[in-house]
Design brief:
The complex is a heterodimer of chains A (115) and B (113). Chain A has 115 residues and is an all-beta fold. Chain A is 0% helix and 54% strand. In chain A, strands 2, 5, 6, 10, 11 and 12 form a 6-stranded mixed sheet that branches. Chain A has a 4-stranded antiparallel sheet with strand order 3-9-8-7, with no helix packed on it. In chain A, 29% of the residues are buried. Chain B is mainly β and 113 residues long. Helix content of chain B is 0%, strand content 57%. In chain B, the strands form 2 sheets. In chain B, strands 2, 4, 5, 6, 9, 10 and 11 form a 7-stranded mixed sheet that branches. Classes of the chains: A mainly beta (115), B mainly beta (113). Chains A and B meet through strand 5 and strand 6 of A and strand 5, strand 9 and strand 10 of B.
């Protein structure tokens, strides 16, 4: 069975601190995709990144970076120099490959960045 | 430009009064999804369409129905809303600009009084 675990329910930091959101996944598939989505208070789910199971390269996008490690089944997300606008719920998700793909969601991590 | 559009953004209905939420997509993708998301929870998949093939999740109540008249549009019908159906309803599809990525609409916040 597929499963995504985000052990951190809530995190609170002060602006400019670095923060890492953890994501651990379980799957028996050899081909799969991992995602991070941001959900601000407005409610819309904003796509941040997708990684496929064959690409373990870490990625950096501005203040955001992602560390994908198949050996530990983890796909962690780091925000450097956090800002108040980063306050949101962040979801990690996993999908299989193929035509009828579905997302398996973690429970989300609520991040509060305080001024 | 918006790729997945949902209307209305906010909907208030009375207990037992049918309500329809709409979703349209400009990505021309053959798969569309409806999710329900309650406060402080992850999105929960209700059903999805693969072309015109309707795929219901096993635990989706019969009270929830869906229609997909064409590739672009999909509707969520709640036949007799209960108080427990108060939630955000999200529509999604896969597609460009990044393939193998699911894109979401802004959601409809439904309140059942």
């Amino acid at each position: 069975a597929q499963k995504v675990t985000q052990a951190q329910t809530e995190i609170s930091v002060v602006e400019k601190e670095d923060v890492t959101l953890d994501c651990v996944y379980e799957t028996r598939d050899t081909t799969y995709y991992l995602f991070w989505y941001k959900q601000p208070p407005s409610g819309e789910l904003v796509f941040l990144i997708r990684r496929n199971s064959f690409d373990e390269q870490n990625e950096i996008s501005g203040r955001y970076s992602w560390n994908f490690q198949k050996s530990t089944s983890s796909f962690n997300f780091t925000i450097t120099a956090s800002q108040v606008v980063d306050s949101a719920v962040y979801f990690c998700a996993l999908s299989n490959a193929g035509n009828n793909r579905k997302l398996i969601w973690g429970l989300g991590t609520s991040l509060a960045v305080n001024p | 430009d918006a790729m997945v559009i949902q209307n209305p953004r906010y909907q208030v209905t009375q207990f037992g009064k049918p309500v329809t939420l709409s979703c349209s997509q400009t990505l021309n993708h053959n798969v569309m999804y409806w999710y329900q998301q309650k406060s402080s929870q992850a999105p929960k998949l209700l059903f999805h369409y693969y072309d015109k093939d309707f795929n219901n999740e096993a635990d989706t109540p019969d009270n929830f129905q869906s229609r997909r008249p064409n590739t672009s549009f999909c509707f969520l019908d709640i036949r007799s809303p209960g108080l427990g159906d108060t939630a955000m309803y999200l529509c999604a599809t896969w597609g460009a600009p990044r393939t193998d990525t699911q894109y979401f609409g802004p959601g409809t916040r439904l309140t059942v009084l």
